[in-house]
Each structure stands twice: as C-alpha cells, then as structure tokens.
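Q: Convert this sequence to structure tokens.
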Amino acid sequence: MAFNTTVKEAAALLGVSVGRVHQLISSGTLPAEKIGNQWFLDDLDVSERAKSAPKGGRPSSRLSSDAKRYILMNCTHEVFGFSHSPSTGRFLEIFDIRDPSRAPLSIVSPRGAAGSVKALDAWWRHRSIPASRNGIDAKLRELGLLDPSQIPFESLGLSLSDQYWVKPEEADIAWEDINFFNNPFSDMNLKPASEGWEWLSEVGLNSPDNTSDGALSKRWVRQGNSTTLLKGSGLLGQEAYNEVVATALHKRLLSEDEFVPYELVQTSHLAVSKCDNFLTDTEEYLPAYAVKQLKRKPNHFNDYQHYVDCCAMLGVDNAGEALDKMIVCDDILANHDRHWRNFGLIRNVETLECRPAPLFDSGSSLWCNASDAQLLEKQWNYSAKPFYDDPNRQLRLVNDLSWLDPHALDGFVEEAHEILAQNTSLAGRLDAICEGIQFRIDRLLRQL
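A:
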C-alpha cells in the first residue's frame, strides 16, 4: 500500500468531512498509517471508496420505483422488514421491527421502536466484498452489477460469520434448507488463472464468498463436515506465514479456546493460510466496532475502558482479560492492523449469551509492510491498534500479566524462523524479522 494521501485530501476526494474520514480510519474501513502527528491513507483505497460509496441525499422516487421488500432474518427469527432498491443499491426504509434483541447491534433503537437505514447500509457494506479486493471490478462486470454491496443479494446475504440472511417478503424459504453451516456450497477446488488463483470464482453463486469482508483474497471451502477459510497474502506472501507464527505464539501463551489455529496450505502456485470456522450454527460474531456503539463513551473513559463497559452490558465480565492477552500477543508480533472489526464477541443467537471471541486474523504483523531498508535499520517499533498508535502506551493498558509465563517464550524466535524460512521471498528479511521479535520479547519481559 502507498500511504501518501492526507486525511484532508481524502475528505475532498470522497466528498465527506475530515471527521468522517477519521471515523472510517478508526473503524478499519479505510487502512491508514500515522506518520508523526498526521494520518496518511492509501490512494487506491480512497479512489475505490469514492467509486463505491453511496451518494448523499434521499433516493428519488423515480430511482426507487424498483424497490423490493425483504425480512432480515437471524437464523429462524424474523428481525425486521426493510426495502431495498437494486438499481441504486440503497436501503430505503426499515419497518415492522419484530425482534430488536436479535438485530445487528446499533441498527435498532434500544426500545425497538425504530431502525436506522444509515446504520443498516453501513452494516451491509461491511458484509460485502470491499471494492479494493483484487479482481472485483472484473467480477462485477461478469455479474452485471454496479457495486459490491449488490453481490450478497445473490445468495440471500448468507454468511459464515453469523446467522443473518434476507428473505424476500413473500418467499417460502426455510433457514434449515439454505444456511452454509449445514448445507454444501463448494470444495477445495481452486484453479490457477492468469491473475493468480480464482479466488472470486464462487462469487455471485450460492456461496459464502459473497459476504467475505477484508482486502486480502479469501475463499470458504467445505471439507467433510467442517467449513474452512483460505486466505491469501500481499506482495511477498508473508501474511499467510505470519498467521502460522501467531498460532505458534498463541499455543505457548493461551488456552485452546482463546485463539483460532492456522495452518499453511502449500501449492505449486502459492501458500495460503487455512483455519476452521470458529462459530457453530447457533452463533454469530459481534465485531468490537458494533459493541462499542452500545452506549456513548463517557469523557473520563478511554476506549479500552469503554469497550469493557459495553461488554459488561452484554453480560461479558472477562472482556478485560481477553483484551490484555490480545494486546500482549499483538505487541510481540508487532501486529499493525488489529482494527475494531477483527476482534470482538461471540453471541448465541438463541440464548443471546456472549463471550469473547478467540484471537484471529494476525497476518498483518512482523513488519510485513516495512521496507527492506527499515528492517535493516532495526526499526522494531510499529503503529499499534486499536487503542493507541504507540505500542508502549497501549501495553500500559494491560492490568494483569500474572497469566504470562516467561519460560513459555523460550525457543519461540527459533520456531518463528523455521516457519518463515519456508517462504523464500523473505530470505533477505528473515534474520532482521527474527531479531525484531526477540527485541519485542525482551522489552515485554522487562515489564514483568
């Protein structure tokens, strides 16, 4: 990524306020890096956002004449009705709120009296393939669609991250017959193509790939009775290996239910990371970004305290402990992209009981976005997320380190070296990366 667009320049290109751009950065919608006291965004991400973002103002009656009515479902539960215009990609209204307790967080008012179309649109766009995904423009042309947000309607909005789906108002469709948790959708049949693997081959069909968020290429596959997520990497292919390094660290420091284990899938074309779905067919993932909007943040609270407080509103009393472990592991790995959408809670859609989600998505770490010159200069610091840019300041949020066994880290650098050495593209960077890991471990242990 080329982080060379200022917040002010991005606001002008997008036709929004500077404050709105900062919101998009905070939520993880627009990747950004902070240099000194100023945020910089990737010009490609900004231009793609400008092309795909909905225009302001109310939709005209002429363009809304094709409106279709749906019911938002959560598993077998009817949540609310809504109307949507296929030609504009706009949500027009929310009506007949039936089960506000099972609605996506922050879309329906606390008492269930009204719903926010703007919040529904934002939620849906994060349920869609981002415009920055490699190959998405060609796929849209193939499908005859104008915007990625239209793709999920091709498969009723079904996902493997939650139990939500959209049912045409008069349709006779049963959740048991269509959900991806218990019904087939694809297998491990990825074919080489001229632009890399056909990651988007299932998109537009009856596939959970229609609702895969994130900039890196992703593909859900069925393996026996389990569902598995395959995820690609950036230019050097490091992210997939980083996931395996993170798994090695998590195994040393955490219990099995506190992290998602990743493996490498090697082929003659590339290596990708693989992990099983961490949700059952009665669970949904609640991103921290939605959780923290349950209430207004008091002025005397920092984001860490506010998030823990919001988790407590959902009956989760151990959110602080989970955050502490996340911060420590991310600090060792120099994870620069722990944004508010890749950590959160798991909620049972029947009982509505919640618990912290296991740690996942640690690929954007180990200085994978640093230049060779930066690594050779031994710049082991990084821009942290989600609470503070400064990792030192973020680490000071950790209240309790009694769970951390220093001896569990013995030999971890060597294990990381062995994993990363499988990627020949990292040969000139490998020793520097491992030296950086050791630096961060030593720095952490000095605080014990």
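Residues 238-253 form the longest helix (16 residues).
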